[in-house]
Amino acid sequence: MIIATSIIVLGLLGFVFAALLALAADYFKIEEDLRLAAIVAILPGANCGACGAAGCRAFAERLIKGEVAVSGCLAGGQDVANQLAAVMGVEQPTDVHKRVAVVHCGAKGSQRKIKANYSGVKTCQAAEMIAGGGLMCGYGCLGYGDCYCVCPFDAIRMSDGLPVFDHNKCTACGKCVAACPRKIISIIPYAFNVVVACSSRDTGAATRKNCPVGCIACKICEKQAPAVFKVEDNLAVIDYTRTGIDGGPAIEKCPTKCIIRIDQ
Is residue 13 part of a domain? Predict the structure, then answer.
C-alpha cells in the first residue's frame, strides 16, 4: 500500500511539474524571425568575427535588427551580399569590392641577417618577446606562421619563412592581421594589386645593412607615381584610395625590388 501511494504521489508531482514547465515555456518563449535560419544558411559559417559580430548567427540577428548592412559579411563577398539582399528584400549592394591580406615583408629566411640564435617557443608571439627572435631587422616577418595557424580559410601557406596568401581563398577576415605581433600584415583592395613588401622605419643605410630587399627611402617610387606613393618615416607607403593609377613604373625602378605585385 505504501509503495502504491508513493507511486501515485510521484506521478501527480511529475504531472504538476510538467504542466508548470509547459506553461513557463509558452509564457517565456521568444518568437524567432523566419528569416534567421535562411540568413544563417547563406553565411559562410566560419564565425571569423570580421563583421564585428561574435559569429555568423550573431551577424544574422544584427542584420534582421537593421544594425548591419547586407554587405557586412567580409568573408562572403559580393555573392553572399546579393543573397542576403534577396532575403531581406533590399537592393543588391554594388560597393562590395574584394579585399585581401598582404604581408609587408619580402625577406626570405635565407636573406634575414641574424644577431643571435633564438631557441625558444617557435611562435612569432614568443620570438618577438625575446629580442625579436634574434633577427637584425626589428620590423620584418619572424617566420613562425602565427598567421598561418589562425587562418580559417586555408588561405595561407608558409614558404621560406614568409606567409604566402592564396587570394582566391582569402576573405580579408583579418585574423592574420590580429595574430601578427609585428603588425606587418594588412588588408588592401585586391584590384590595386601592388604592395610595399617592407615595414622598416630605419634609415636607408641601416636597412641596407640589415636586409637586401628592404625599403631604403630613396623616393624613386614617389617620383615615378607621386599620386600613389609617398615616403614617410623612411618607408614608402601606398595611397590605396587612388584607383586607376598604374604602379608599374615604381615597381620597375625600385632598386631593392621591395615594391611588388601581390600575385607574383
Answer: no
Residues 256 and 216 in one domain: yes
Q: pLDDT (tens digit, 9 = 90+) per residue, 166-181?
A: 998 998 889 999 999 9
Going by C-alpha positions, the residue among 242, 239, 236 that lies closest to residue 254 is 236
User: What angle is formed at CA 222 by the lines to CA 220 and CA 226, rounded to 5 degrees?
Assistant: 145
Q: How many domains does the chain have?
A: 2
Q: Cα 151 vs. chain centroid, distance in angstroms?
A: 8
Instruction: Provide the CB-side half-sphere exposure for 66 (13 A, CA).
Output: 2
Please check whether residues 103 and 170 belong to one and the same domain. yes
Provide the pLDDT confidence category of residue 28 given band limits of 50, 70 and 90.
Answer: low
Q: Which of 169, 157, 162 shows the shortest CA–CA distance to 195?
A: 162
Euclidean distance between CA atoms 204 and 216, whole angstroms? 4
CB 140 within 8 Å of CB 103: no
